Amino acid sequence: MDIPKKAIVYIIAILLIAVPVTYYLATTWSIDSWQALVFWAALAVVSESLGITLPNGMGISVGFAITIASLIVGGPLMSAVVTASGLTFMIIHRQGNEYAHIFNTPIYKTLFNAALGILSAGISGMVYTAVGGEIAKFSVIPVIISLITYIFLNSTIIVGLMSLLNHQSFINMWTGSIKGTLPSSLAVGTIGIIIALACISYGHVAVLLFFGPLLLARYSFKQYVNMRDIYMETIHALNKTMEAKDSYTSGHAARVEEYAVKLAKALKIPHQKVENIKTAAILHDIGKIGIDDSILRKPLPLTQAEYEEIQRHPVIGAEIIKDVAFLKDVADIIRHHHERYDGKGYPDGLKGSEISYEASILAIADVFDAMTSKRPYREPLSKEAALEEIRLNAGTQFNPELACKFIEIMK
What we know:
The chain is mainly alpha-helical.
């Protein structure tokens, strides 16, 4: 993977910031029990190894509970070392028999993860003591402030890198990250507080008993990801059903998805909207299921009556999916992907800003692939000729801003 120069500079900056923070932690606090350090570090490694990668490249980890617990029990230095150890020595299952670990992970990733742990846990630990928190004693306000500090700092550092790697808006990614992970992070953090109280009252053996609820929380996260995978498989199955009716559009949805997502990312729109566009692109022609096969497969240009019939497919498609909970956000995109910027499109004759950004993006991707694909009644246009058509129709058929951006990224 080629790393953008800005991302390299960012990684170096994070590493440089981590150096004085590490020095300050090591000279201000101490670790009273090395056995306790090994105990917490081992739990951190196990917890981080059970992390779950989300579709946007971010992750959900129950290791945060160990970070909070080790902070309350052992202090900022203990928590920083434990967290950094978990992120450095974790073993992540990729696919099949493939695992990622410290010995096959690029050194820059290992160093970045260690710095991430030191900065997130170390600084939140400093905040904990600064607002009155004491080691091996539970104080509600300091713990809550420290917990929130960790969540926001950790997300900021990770999203900073992810936004540079994916060329997306930091603000949009950060907002999406906080919204998506805050509830689960607060839940896991609460379990960490319970684990700390158990350790303070009953010793390290009690911690192992409370490690069960942590694994249960991880199981819940995993079920969420599995359900999303099933949802995506359902979407692709629906698309294959549609393409089976019209052999000339085989692969059309996949290409439209590629073009639409590329344009959406270039515009740096929020991640969830990119996901909605991706889903809508796959299903945008699902309404053709309700169109007669003789029209879909006709080798000659359509009559006016046949053209009016095929114009029903966006409405049919939107009706098919509008009541499906996990597809409700894409129904309008599908309904309006044949609207025109000048208001002469269908089915609702929307124009200008009345058409959603998502539908306008999909419209450009759909038309571009249609022009560059072979049809029974015409040969495909070249890429250059298709882009010229989009340029000529910017401001009439297409949103001019989006059309210009599409031409820019496709050249």
